[in-house]
Amino acid sequence: MRGYLEEEGVAADSRAETYVALRAYVENWRWSGVPFFLRHGKRMSERFTEVKVQFHTPPLQLFNRPPELDPSEFQRQLREGEICHARPNVLTLRIQPEEAIGLSFGVKQPGNTMDMQPAALHFDYRDHFGEATADAYERLLADALGGDQTLFLRGDEIEASWEYADAVRADWEQADAPPLLEYPSGSWGPRESEALFGDLQGS
């Protein structure tokens, strides 16, 4: 598929943003120290909207330590990457194109050893109810006509969102701002963005 700069009517030197990936923080007591990873782009490898909640992994690794391995040596091998940490539990809320909920977690493998293996639970609205849910805009239009504001943002939320987005764009327009990176159509975005997501990439 064609990239943005290959579209008819788009200037070859256009600097219009088609992709953004960033790490954000909410400065209050509830979310202190919790990173929010945001990624949005056009002509990506897949078209979907989802939210992933990655649960904090406890600092104490109780499983997957060979019984003959000293605990201090086990911690050293974890730090050095010689053996892997247990994967964190992840709750996935798929919004579109299909509505679904998934949970990935570790389970103890049957037997006498304390080996953990990844497992997953999955719930799909279409599979469960036998019919597809309404398109997002279709639902919103129906709610607007019916006067139901449940799924709509408040005015102050919209203003706060634009204030944040405008601040990011203002930084991009500074003379010393990093260069705008390009990415091939049908990919996951610039390769440099993978460093931002780290272990979250492809999880």
Short account of what is shown:
This protein is α+β, with helices and mostly antiparallel strands and 203 residues long. The chain is 24% helix and 21% strand. It has five helices and six strands.
Structural write-up:
This protein has 5 helices and 6 strands. The model has no long low-confidence stretch (mean pLDDT 84). A hairpin with a 3-residue loop joins β4 (90-96) and β5 (100-108). The chain is extended and about 65 Å long. The protein is 24% helix and 21% strand. The strands form 2 sheets. The chain has a 4-stranded antiparallel sheet. Strands 1-2 form a two-stranded antiparallel sheet. The longest helix is centred in the last third of the chain and has 18 residues, at 155-172. It is of the alpha+beta class and 203 residues long.
